[in-house]
Amino acid sequence: MEKQDGLEMQIKFIALISRDNQPVYIETCLGNDNDNGNGNGNGSDCLNEELKYNFLSHMALDALECAESPTTTTTTTTSTPAGAGSTSPRTMPALLFIEDGVSVYGNVSAAGFKVVIGATNTTCTGTTSTSHLRRLSDAAARARRVYIDWASNPFSLYEPTEGAVLSEKLRAIIREC
After folding, report:
1. Which of 45, 99, 119, 175 is most buried when burial is the number of CB atoms within 10 A of its CB?
2. CATH number assigned to the domain comprising residue 143
3. pLDDT value for 62
4. What's the whole-model pTM score?
5. Distance between CA atoms of 99 and 117, rounded to whole angstroms?
6. Does residue 24 lie within any of the structural domains?
7. Which domain holds residue 127?
8. Distance CA 27, CA 52 (A)
9. In terms of DSSP H, where are the helices of the chain?
10. pLDDT digits (tens, 9 = 90+) for 19-58
């Protein structure tokens, strides 16, 4: 968890969703610095939080399906030596909704694979700083790469420890952002 632009951002969950809207994997921050340091890991509270994040990721599917443009694209112009500008689009996650203090962002790849991220990083007006959007975009891209690496490994379906490897890599992304 970092402070940037005067706002604190903490990712609460990352959900990976297939092109046919089937949740592939949902990783939450529970058990990773979510108990505010008191060490009180109440099982009922953890279960309720986990259910909340699962519900929010399913709500995001509806929001992504209803949205005409599931991602926002910002275009940056860079100067070339000849003085002519070239543009390169960078896809940022779109804010889908804010529910129960969690801002839910979604990003859809060209192949239809969806990454949904829930974070606490917006002001009360629902605006998000550009630096937070870049960090969320980076987290979404990293989560997508981790999943592709895991899914393209022919042994991941047969090796029980491979699921734990995927989970740990996604938890690392959550902790780093």
Report:
1. 119
2. 3.30.450.70
3. 85
4. 0.71
5. 13
6. yes
7. 8-35+44-65+91-176
8. 12
9. 43-66, 130-151, 160-176
10. 888 888 888 876 544 444 444 456 678 888 889 999 999 8
